[in-house]
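anyone seen this seq b4? input:
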Amino acid sequence: MSRLFASASKHRLDKLWPWLCAASVALSLLMLSALLTLLLVRGLGHFWPATLEEITLRSGSVVAGQAIRETPLPQEAGVERLYFKGNRDVDGASWHWVDIDDITSRTTPHDLIRLERAPWGSFIGRLAAVETVQQSLHGREAWDYLNNALALPANQRPPGQLLLVTAQGETLRQPLDSVSQALAPNAMSWWQKTHTWGTNVWQFLSEGPRAANTSGGVWPAIFGTVLMVILMSVIVTPFGVLAAIYLNEIAHQNRLTRLVRIGVRNLAGVPSIVYGVFGLGVFVYGIGGTLDSWFFSDTLPSPTFGTGGLLWASLTLALLTLPVVIVATEEGLARIPDAQREGAVALGATRLEMLTRIVLPMATPAMLTGVILAIARAAGEVAPLMLVGVAKLAPQMPVDGEFPYVHLERKFMHLGYHLFDTAFHGEDVQAAMPLVYATALLLVVIILVLNLTAIFLRHYFRRQRGSEC
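predicted toks r here
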């Protein structure tokens, strides 16, 4: 009876096990889809020209702005709506909470405009006139003149001022050359909004940040992230592959070798900030300080290599991801049948020829798997970079037209750090949140593109070599 009961339980478990596995996969995909959907909606939705509302309250005051979200008041006292009204130079606040029950009228006038300007950020109100040296333009003429002027670079625009009126009736004067964008979203068609959305996305990808990272683009951070990951991959791949070859193919398999393997695997679990401290002490202060005393003594005490930079950040992340590459490559080497090695030697190949012509080509997919995992980890790391070279705003790009063209000693921007700085160190956290989502989506896309490139190469070599690794 007990055997029959045990057999029935095992049979039920065998039938239940595939369903548990399938449910786990489905839940993982669901959570991943939810994350990507959140980033897409919150990130890309920020660049869509949102409708501007003008509301009148019971008190008689008028508020113009973009409705952001609604929040229930405590004890079922009603609902509050958050409006972005801009105009920080008028009353020092860009956001306004409104009790929905206090709203007496709500309209979307076509003449409401939104300007992006420096240094006060967004203006939401109306354009009363454009004043030039020769004339003062009003109405449609003023709006057309403004759009034509904005199509020119800021240093080529004709001198002039904008006469702006807020929803409360206050008048402002804004220099024409300080305005970067002018929109009237309520008067735009769907096609015009789509075109503007595409333009805003392109500006986000191709321009530098402005207004303490709460506006503008992230091109320097994209460039710095990709360049650092490429340098890290170039450094870590040969060292990781050679170390794996030595441990699996050359070293005697004894207690010392097993201890080395345990040490390598344990290094993969060391907190990344520890690698940052190591990079700061050894690479920056140790090696960099020595290089400064040997070759750049005339510039001291201002350091050249004795401070954080692209080279030290790449080396630090290469050290951080080295265990991943070693373990993945060694696993691939271990899966190659010994018959392949013995057959090559029996046919007269030397040990070096056997390694370079038989073993390494068959293990190439495993090596690329290690590189894929290394890229995925390194591209998202922030903690060590804060110690060895990343900057909030890098005045110079690491690559330019001056010899030696790639300046490894310069600081650089990174998407991960840009994301952290924008979310926690910005002057206006509410205004920065959409950019946080957009930057996070961009970081995911860049990691995905880098990984897909490595995966494509892995499959290519796998097809070429017919490897089972």
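The chain has a mean pLDDT of 86. The CA atoms of residues 327 and 463 lie 23 Å apart. kinda curious what u guys think
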